[in-house]
Amino acid sequence: MLANGIRNLVVKMHPKDNVLVALTDLAKGENISFNEESFLLKDTIKAKHKFYTNNLIAGDEVIMYGVLVGKAQHTVAKGSLMTTENIKHAADPYTYRHIDFKWQAPDISKYQHKTFNGYKRTDERVGTANYWLFVPTVFCENRNMDVIREALQNELGYAVTDKYIQYTHQLLQAYQRGENIDSVEVQLNAGGNTNRIFKNVDGIKFLNHQGGCGGTRQDAATLSALLAAYANHPNVGGVTVLSLGCQNLQTQDLLADIKKQNPQFDKPLFIFEQQQSVSEEQLVANAIKKTFEGLIEINKLQRTPAPLSDLCVGVKCGGSDGFSGVSANPAVGYTSDLLVALGAKVLLAEFPELCGAEQNLVDRCTTEVAAKKFISLMRVYDAQAHSVGSGFHMNPSPGNIKDGLITDAIKSAGAAKKGGTSPVVDVLDYTESATQAGLNLVCTPGNDVEATTGKAAAGATLILFTTGLGTPTGNPVCPVIKVATNTILAKKMHDIIDIDCGPIISGEKTIEEMGEDILDYCIKAASGEIIPKAVQLNQDDFIPWKRGVSL
């Protein structure tokens, strides 16, 4: 598609496509040559957007990534800009077809004997970090969680707010001197608090949420399974549970789910119930003291070498743009293929953003059971969305559309590229754990935080998160690595972006070269040698999915 070292003006994503993607701004009236054919542009085509390569009439199919992504709404001339007015979402139906899928794995000789330094748990899984986790069984405990968070993180060197406290102090001093704060030069201290007391504890994390009571019993049961998955996560070394006492999600239910997921669970776990405590003060003090004892214990753990097959990497996109399916997603897809070939687990989720890519994924399933489970989950989810007057076709956000993702099928076909080309070994419902090496599909919404929350619950120990518009999304227990689709974004939001895939757009690197760069970064991040920006910022986003309609 892209010639290494050559700045192409346009790219065709698949030989069957009848659209081209602009890699740079193109002017109306310009003649664009591609594959020995000339296209006179009828409109200005901004970078990331598409134009049609042939004349269309109403009802004609629009093909991109080799699949149906929409249908023309009226007559459209060759060289015209694709817009929401001249195309509407459309996707092909899908079914199980008994395909004997063959896969050509990439060359992994470069990585075959490489390792990462992780935390080996007693169940043989290996974490990329060592966190202490605070879990409330109900939203009533969020205030106590916040009090404990401030006390522990500030005193033990995990807080990232020092520079803002200093900034506020400078503003206060200016105000007390009677000065106009707009005229006072205040400097943010770029340095953070790096005086961590427990060197082998990567953080103290808090899963504040709005559930556990009210709602339905099914909501509480789903939340319990989710929280249990986090307690059981290989990146978690110990757990403190705060309970009110009278809520729907009872402590014994959470403990039962933890044991159900891992009968050999042996991490330090402390439980505090407020309605059985003498006072709020005593509850908080006891929780802090016992947690401190637990921190001393898990700080004894050391990183040790582990094969790359012990990695479990989630792939996600958010704040997507017209380059997502051209640069970052295919590059992450190549990384996914390398990981699968090395025997690791890869998790592809966001079911509303697989619309139009279903048949390809069904054909890649290694078993009929997995294929039919995927079909069932997709159809039930889509029907639920339609029952409230929505549908997968309403997934693209205004920002997506503005930057070239005109239909959900376009967005989805590009999003699916993150999963690479390998066979689908398993299909997981929300809160189910990945147990098989290879590519796993995980049922989650497309919503950034709900999806990353679900992916970590499935066992992801790293998440590769591609973005074209920029998003700060992180996760409490799973380091999230931000991969930019373009260099402009990578430079503009350098404080949240870790990897720049812009060199693919400029022709400086191939998708395969970029994919290897991403894997190299993953190995360093998994070893604690590089700290992703979301982790540095304590961007600990956590939103449980209630299994309602969320796109």
Structure overview:
The structure is a single chain. The radius of gyration is 25 Å and the shape is globular. The two termini are 31 Å apart. The strands form 6 sheets. Strands 18-19-17-16-20-21-22 form a 7-stranded parallel beta sheet, sandwiched between helices. With 551 residues, the protein is an alpha/beta fold. The protein contains 15 helices and 22 strands. The longest helix has 20 residues.
Features:
single chain, 551 residues, alpha/beta, seven-stranded parallel sheet, four-stranded parallel sheet, 15 helices, disordered N terminus
Calculate the terminal CA-CA distance, rounded to whole Å: 31 Å
How is the biggest beta sheet arranged?
7 strands, parallel
Characterize the overall form. Answer: globular
Cα-atom radius of gyration? 25 Å
**Uncertain spans:** 1-6
- Mean of residue pLDDT values: 93
Proportion in β-strands? 15-25%
Helix content: 25-40%
Helices and strands in order:
Elements: E1 10-11, E2 19-22, E3 31-34, E4 37-40, E5 50-52, E6 61-64, E7 67-72, E8 87-89, E9 115-120, E10 126-127, E11 131-136, H1 142-156, H2 162-176, E12 203-206, H3 217-231, E13 236-243, H4 251-261, E14 269-273, H5 280-298, E15 304-307, E16 312-317, H6 328-341, E17 345-348, H7 358-364, H8 368-387, H9 398-402, H10 408-415, E18 424-428, E19 438-442, H11 448-457, E20 462-467, E21 480-484, H12 487-492, E22 499-500, H13 502-506, H14 511-526, H15 533-536
Parallel strand pairs: 11-12, 11-13, 13-14, 16-17, 16-20, 17-19, 18-19, 20-21, 21-22
Antiparallel strand pairs: 1-2, 2-5, 3-4, 6-7, 7-8, 9-10, 9-15
Helix pairs in contact: 1-5, 3-4, 6-14, 7-8
